[in-house]
């Protein structure tokens, strides 16, 4: 791959009212991603922020004076700065683990067989219901911290292991508390329609009615940013998903969907019909559904961790997404069953190796497009006026983010202008 030449600064001059900056990093290279193509490289650059917002993104040489006179804190550093990574699909709040299922699958059992025999999602529901809110927070924080340590500054966190009002509420409250405790951006997604709890066996339509009923009070408590469902043979039908989406629409909540992961139930097209933020997984998505996603601006969220762990072979329709201009995001799907993955950078690596994304596509997928999949227009690129969410990486070029498997690449991780992890070494 040829590494493009540095682009010019976006041209936003530092304004007198921006001064003094809270922080200014000089000497690094920037991958701003603030263009339709390419990394938006600026070499020997400077990045300045104040009150949690970026105020300068450009060449060091264009700074209006001595850095020391411009900012309360000046950091001279090398490496590359990218926008903070946005993990737009996680189930990281849960109790217990499913390592035993991993062993069973390696012996030949399928994900569906395990689910139909009372394992799978429902076994995590048992463990999650048994944990109180503080315990659930204690168990979930290390996973959020691991994601942050490898560069994530925004985490989407789904409910879906409670499956009754009080336990879904508990999960969503824990998700919000993770944001408060760690200072990371958190977007919550209500996934009551994740699986059928045992007390509703044989009564899926009644359960969907209950899920719809819990949505308003949870929303009124400020616990829901978006609504999701698992539209699948072992999940819920398209008709049931539609009822969930209609309730969300009536409350003004955006939708997204676990769509077409194991079979094609037309889920991605259904998400598009509701102008959904995203359709996620999408391995079995048809050409017609891709066209519907393009028409409605629905992002395709690729989850290569689940593909990898389930040893799937059916690839998402990647060329069709590219041809139709459907934005592709990449996320971890961090969950105890299909994707016990605690690094978004590793998900980017898997997206390159399994799905043949380019490293640039994977980086855009974990920043710009992931932000869109959450409906966030204030992050995902380095640009004046955006949130000061960024990562300084110890690398010689951004393609290395997808090249290394593991490793400690994130030098400093900042969210809203506050350093969350890392050091200046
Ligand atoms: O995204 N597919 C459904 N939900 C999760 C799996 C959750 C689980 O197995 O616990 C997924 O893969
Ligand atoms: Fe998922």
Short description:
With 425 residues, the chain is α/β, with parallel strands linked by helices. The protein has helices at residues 67-70, 99-106, 111-116, 121-130, 133-149, 165-182, 204-220, 238-250, 267-273, 287-296, 304-309, 318-324, 344-355, 359-365, 368-373, and strands at residues 23-26, 29-31, 41-42, 45-50, 53-59, 74-76, 80-83, 85-87, 152-158, 185-193, 226-231, 256-259, 278-281, 299-302, 328-330, 390-393, 410-415, 418-422.
Strand composition percent: 15-25%
Determine and state the CATH class of the largest domain: Alpha Beta
What strand line-up does the widest sheet have? Answer: 8-9-10-11-12-13-14-15
User: How many angstroms separate the termini?
Assistant: 29 Å
The description of the largest β-sheet is: 8 strands, parallel
Using the coordinates shown, work out and report the CATH topology of the largest domain: TIM Barrel
Bound ligand species? N-(iminomethyl)-L-glutamic acid, fe (iii) ion
Taken from the alpha-carbon principal axes, the silhouette is globular
Number of domains: 2
Number of helices: 15
Q: Which architecture of the largest domain per CATH?
A: Alpha-Beta Barrel
- Say how many strands there are: 18
Spans of at least 5 consecutive residues with low confidence: 1-10
CATH homologous superfamily caption of the largest domain: Metal-dependent hydrolases
The helical percent reads 25-40%
User: Structural class of the secondary elements?
Assistant: alpha/beta
Rounded average pLDDT: 95
Radius of gyration, whole Å: 21 Å
